[in-house]
Every structure is written in C-alpha cells, then in structure tokens.
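re: ur question from earlier - yeah i can do the single chain one, its not a big deal. heres the input i used so u can compare w yours
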Amino acid sequence: MATVIGTRFIGLCAAGLVSLPAGVLAQESSADLPVIRVTEGQSIEEASNTLASEPVERLSADPSVSLSRMGGRGLEPVIRGQSQERVDVLLDGIRVEGACPNRMDPPTSRLSAALAPLLEVRTSNQTLRWGPITGGQVVATTAAPVFDDSATTGHLTLGGADNGNGKLANGSVAVGNDDAWLRLAGGYDEADDYEDGDGNEVRSAYKNSEARLDAAWQADSGFYIKSLVSRQEERDVKYAGSGMDAPKTDTDIMRLELGSPVANGNWNLLAWQADVDHIMDNFSLREPPIMMGMPMKMQTLSETQTRGLRLTLDQSPDARTDWAIGADVETNNWHAERFGGANIDVLTSVLWPDVDRDRFGLFAERFYRVTPALKLGGGVRYDRVEMSAAAADKVFGSGMMAMSAADAYQTIYGTTNTDVTDDNFSGFVSSDWRFSPIQSLVVTASHSVRSPGVTERYIASWNNMDPAKRWVGNPALDPETHRKLELAMPGQSNGWHWRPAVWVDQVDDFVLRTRNADQVSVYRNIDARLMGVEGQLGWSNGTWSTNSSLALVRGENRDENKPLPQIPPVQFIQTLGWQHMGHALELEWVLARRQDRVDLESGQDPGTSPGYGVLNLSGSHPLADYLSVSWAVDNLFDNTWAPHVSRANTDPFNPEAVRVNEPGRTLRAALTARW
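and the output i got, formated as tokens:
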C-alpha cells in the first residue's frame, strides 16, 4: 500500500503553514482509482500551495503514521509501529543519512520547506528499485516549475505563528520553459519555545535556513539532464527530549540525473552526495549539570557522508507487460566523538568509531496484466552490505579508566570482530484483481531483509561511573528478516471511496533496543510479530467532503511474550471540508486511545499514555489572481497532549510531563504570492 498525502489543510508546523488536498488517497494500480505514480526526477503536480518549516508534519494526516517529537524540529515518523532504521526516506530518489547519534536530525528533517514536496508513504513492496521496505518508506518528490507560456514563474510566502512567536519567509523563482529551466529557491524560519496546553514552556526553539539551485534540460530526442545543489543550516535548536541541544547542523546535497528513451522504455542514471556536520552540547543553550561545584560540560562533534549511484532500465514491450532491472551502489561514513572537561578537550567517548558501510544492490521486477481486471507482479533483489569501524581501537579516557569502542563491545557482548558482511535476498509478489466495477482486491506478499544500522551495531557511549548511562551497539547482530502479507480492498462509487486493509509482519532477528541486568542500553536479536488493521471511508460532492481513517497496530516480542516498545495506540482521524470558488475550510478531529501495552524494561517507553482528542481548524482564501492567505488554529481547545511515541521529557521547565508535549492552541497564518 502507498498513501499519497495531497492538498488538504490539516494545520501548520512550528513556524509555517501546511496545506494538503482533500483526501488521503490509496495508491493502487486499479484502472479507475485516482493514482499519482511518483518516480524519481519526473514532473508531478504541485503538492501544496503553502509551505511549512518541517513538511514531514503533513504525514500526521494518515493514522498509520505517528510522529515522535524531541523538540521543535526533527520529528521522527513512525509507520505501523516501526521507525528509525526501519523507515527509509527518499528525497527525490536519494538517501541522506543523519549525523546525530541521538537522531536530532532524522532524514525527514532534510525535506525542503521552500519547495514543499509531494509526500508518499509506502508500507509494502510494490517495487524494489530503492531497496526492500521493512517498516515503511517515505518518498518525497519535488515538482518541476510550471511556466504556462511565461518565461518566469515563482512564489513568495510570509507567515508566522503566535505560540512560540514563529516567523517564516521563503520563495522561489524559475526562468526558462518546459524543456530547459533554472530555479533558485530559499527560505528562513525560526521560533522560540512554545507553550503546551497547561501554559508550560517546552524547549523547542530553533532557526532554520536553506538555499537550493536546480536545473533541467531536455533534448528533442528525449535525452535529459537534471541537477541540484542545496545547503541547509540549522542553528540553536533546543530539545526537551534530550540532555543536549544542537547549536549547529549543516547539510550539503548535490544530485545529478541523466536519462533517455531506449527501445520500448527508458534508462536513468542518478548520482548523489550528501554531507552533514552536526554539533550538540549541554551548555550553549542551557545550564550544564553541576557536580562537586563544577559544571559538567559535554560536546559531541559528528559528521556523516553519503555517496550513491543508481542505474535503472524500464521497458514496456507490449500493452500488458512492464519490467525493470537495475543496480545501485551506496557508501556511507559516520564518525562522532564526545568531549568533556573544563575546556571541552577531553575525549570521553568515540560514539561512532569512523564507521564505513558499502552497499551494492541488484534488482529485477516484472508486472503483467493477465486480463483487463487482473494484474500480477513480482520482483527480486540482492544486496551485499559490508560494514567496518576503523576507529574502534581509538582510546578515550585515561589511566585505569581508558577504554575504546572495541573494549565496550567485548565487555558487553564478548565480541571482538567489528567487520561485518551481509548477503541479503529480498522479493515480493503482488496481485490486483478488480472483481467488480467498483471494488478491487489487492494482495502483496514480501520477504524483506534489513542490515542493522550504524547505531545498532556500533554506538559506543560509555560512562565509567554509571552503567545506566552507557549505550553500546552490537557488531554481532544478524540482519532482520520481515515476512509480510497485506490484503486491501480499495473501491469507489458515487462520490464515495473506501479502503479496508489487514496486514501481518513476521520478523526474524528483530533488532530490539533494551536494557541488560546492569541497565546498560544494548541491542539484541529477537523474534517479533506486528499486525494491524486499517480503514478509510470518504465522500465528496465537489463542495463538501468528509473522510474517516482508522489505524490499529499490535507488536509482540515473541521471545518473551510481551509487547514491543514504542507501538502507537489505536488512532482515528475525522475531517469535514468545504470548498467553493477557491475558498476552503476544514475541521479535523484527531483521536487516540490510551496505550497500556508498553515495555518499561526496554527504557524506550517512558510509561503508559492517556488517550487524547484534538480539534484543528484551517482555511485558505484567494485575495487576488496571484495572492492568497492561509490560516489554521491547531489544538482549538488548548489541550495538553503528547503522542505515545514521543521522547521522554527531560525539560526542567516542565518536570511533570512524561513525554514532550505538543503545542497548546496555536494560530498560524501565511500570505503567498504566485506568478
């Protein structure tokens, strides 16, 4: 299943406005259903009329997606109870890894606010060209400029929010035509700490700026070249869910794409690189803890580098058959060191010990329409993953306290080998049967293998005095194997559309973060099972619309017969919308049941969580041919609430909160000019 998030207003981000279309559409291949097929680098309709400081917040319109909050930025998507390394994020076809061991900067924080992308959520394998899906996949695609017989096009947006005193300004300008164009875009947004529903300040202030230059050219033969250069700078970002803040994070991305028609299809070559530099500390934006009359300052310097190349060939030899083959290679390097002492010059941990990951993949897939009502598909993929830690023997501390990352792995797990090679085989089969004029049955079965990530295998955060403050990865972890089955029955008739679905995911060697007998945060393989039910029912007559969506997921640790940690509760979203002559209004009601199924021993669940209900109201109005205003009131009744999956609260301003609370009532508005 893939869910496309479109132009329906659901609220605004910390310092900007989010606009989405009137429904959450199920992307299926049935002929009469509304479909947006997103492929890397190809032009699509513009996803949004207004811009947001963090576009990932638009995914909250889907109840199968929860967002874990640690501060004002860096929202982490949780898809069907799985997150972090199990959620793959593609930015116009490329991966950008984060540089923070504590995930202050998940890949979704790299989504452009100046050019809001279309966001698509995939939960099962319908293609393997980007790799197998284990938990979920977020695909962000940026639309090409539309010139409409003009030589220039662009936009300018100014906006703000009252709660947290948020401000934003962004814009773009493009010159050229549909065959050759150059576009410059950029923006700046900031916010102070917001208040929750009880009036308590939540550490959430941030400053974010970005600039990007992209261009494209296409010859009469169909050969094309597309390129992108971008830079993002985040400054003074506070986190209520962490013992540190991030005074500086810089991201540089370059992307080059070539392609051309060939035979009965086309070929595509995509190359990219991304560099992220990150600094976090406990003294620039807060008072450090005091021990024996001395401030205990800490600072972490970390960086990651990503390089990738992907070649694909797509062919349609006849009206019934589509097939594709491809290969890709990706290299990553992560390095992070933590310093302490009076002058912040004492190395206290090598958190990521110069970790290299080299990944090479091959895929092949084919889709065949057996009859006009039945389409079958399938694919296979092989990935070879090699990982090593060049600085595992680098010593930190001194004297009797001297340690290394390799010492930490041996102390906790008894392993001395830090070089790992995984051979991963994945595949899927799918069928789409339209058994009536208004109804289809879509079945997908998949076998997906994921190698553990850099933190799961190599994190080495050591504290000589307190074992509960140690966090150590496990180089001996085995890859996860997901065997997933999903059945869905999408349909539509007379203005109605619906999509019930059930799914089960049997996971061998699930990588569980938990605590051992000494309360050290560790990783180990277990057998797990996740299963869920989802439902959507919507109606529209062009002026009025309504949509109801429900998601339930259950996660089990089968080795110990107890719940998996960080599983969201039952979630329900109801919307009522009105549109007329360019004006739009929407009321959204977000509900969640309390969650009692937690794993307190793992250290990942701060505790059980109460249920909540939140109302959001939003609208947009044309003021002139090229000018519009958008507004929203989030959390209309000023409730105090937090998603179950949000980080444990460590905010001294709000010591009674169990999790990082969401903003209280917030009024946001934005004025947009387009030409």
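Residues 1-51 have pLDDT under 50 and may be disordered. not sure if urs matches, ping me
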